[in-house]
Q: What sequence folds into this?
């Protein structure tokens, strides 16, 4: 390994500028310079040991610790004149040009110097202080448990958390507030204080209709006015959610936001989640009275089902509608087909052709620019 001469300078508040010269490999020279620099920095309060434990009992010496910025006022050298004299003697005994054979002895002497003069910060506690700290911790834990019980009584069905399994998505109610702080440039406008599980289901596309179907199970939430937020209903990002209109009283203990203001009201959000453990929302374990979407629907005027998905309108008929009905819908911009070709741009089809419609619409989304893609059926509501 090649060697060359490296000069180093260190500024001591007591002895001024101290210099050394090393004829060593670069890595070895820098390591030795770092060791010697720590001896000079002892007077700055940037190196120290911590004494922890109980006074009169077992005491532990931890460290050394180094502050990257600033200094600890408690990290004072016990005998500063002795330290300055020892540092001057140590530096005078260093070789004018340090070679490899000098490094082990210098390193050992520097370690002994450091151990002897490094400040010690006493962080030991009296038995009374230990008891007071433990009592404060127990009181904080008790308050936390009491707050949890209050939240469970106000929002949850029971205290048993539910874990989402692999391959599932959950729908949760999040109690949300703005935790941003302009003064510190901290931005968190949708911070959830608590979250409760509303439903769990096999992983699906995150769509508005799924969230609204879940809301139908909870009368108190269904009565709230909700707005849909989602850049793309096919997106799996966090922007697909329902947000309540207005805010509601927080039924737990008021708390402090990051900016320091007290939070007493929050808004609700219905979100998709892919993992986690959640308390079930009140009414979660009540069986849903609604039939499965796959159940057959008897033919009647009320049995016609309409779904809205992005700019698509899907109309499902249990049987072929009358010629006059089909003609009127065609005038509105709808198109008709049979079997696998039934999935036209507006999505109007007979119910028996649903499978073929879905297949064709996947192709339509992947192959933009077709003339019939510009045809859309206006919303029927």
A:
């Amino acid at each position: 390994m090649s060697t060359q001469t490296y000069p180093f300078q260190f500024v001591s508040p007591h002895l001024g500028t101290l210099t050394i010269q090393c004829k060593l490999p670069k890595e070895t020279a820098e390591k030795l310079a770092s060791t010697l620099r720590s001896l000079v920095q002892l007077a700055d309060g940037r190196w120290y040991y911590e004494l922890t434990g109980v006074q009169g009992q077992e005491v532990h010496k931890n460290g050394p610790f180094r502050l990257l910025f600033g200094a600890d006022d408690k990290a004072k050298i016990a005998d500063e004149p002795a330290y300055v004299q020892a540092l001057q003697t140590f530096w005078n005994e260093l070789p004018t040009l340090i070679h490899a054979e000098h490094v082990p002895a210098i390193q050992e002497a520097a370690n002994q110097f450091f151990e002897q003069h490094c400040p010690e910060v006493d962080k030991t506690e009296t038995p009374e202080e230990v008891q007071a700290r433990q009592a404060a911790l127990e009181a904080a834990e008790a308050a936390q448990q009491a707050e949890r019980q209050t939240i469970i009584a106000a929002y949850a069905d029971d205290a048993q958390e539910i874990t989402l399994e692999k391959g599932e998505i959950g729908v949760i109610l999040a109690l949300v507030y703005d935790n941003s702080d302009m003064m510190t440039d901290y931005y968190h406008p949708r911070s959830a204080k608590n979250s409760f599980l509303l439903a769990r289901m096999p992983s699906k596309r995150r769509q508005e209709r799924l969230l609204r179907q879940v809301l139908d199970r909870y009368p108190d939430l269904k009565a709230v006015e909700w707005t849909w937020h989602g850049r793309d209903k096919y997106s799996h990002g966090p922007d697909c959610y329902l947000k309540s209109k207005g805010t509601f009283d927080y039924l737990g203990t008021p708390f402090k936001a990051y900016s320091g203001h007290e939070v007493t009201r929050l808004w609700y959000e219905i979100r998709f989640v892919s993992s986690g453990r959640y308390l079930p929302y009140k009414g979660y374990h009540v069986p849903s009275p609604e039939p499965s979407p796959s159940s057959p629907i008897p033919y009647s005027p009320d049995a016609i089902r309409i779904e809205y998905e992005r700019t698509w309108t899907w109309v499902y008929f249990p049987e072929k509608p009358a010629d006059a009905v089909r003609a009127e819908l065609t005038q509105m911009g709808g198109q008709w087909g049979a079997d696998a070709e039934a999935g036209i741009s507006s999505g109007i089809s007979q119910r028996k052709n649903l499978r073929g419609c879905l297949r064709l619409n996947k192709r339509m989304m992947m192959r933009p620019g077709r003339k019939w893609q510009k045809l859309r059926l206006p919303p029927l509501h």
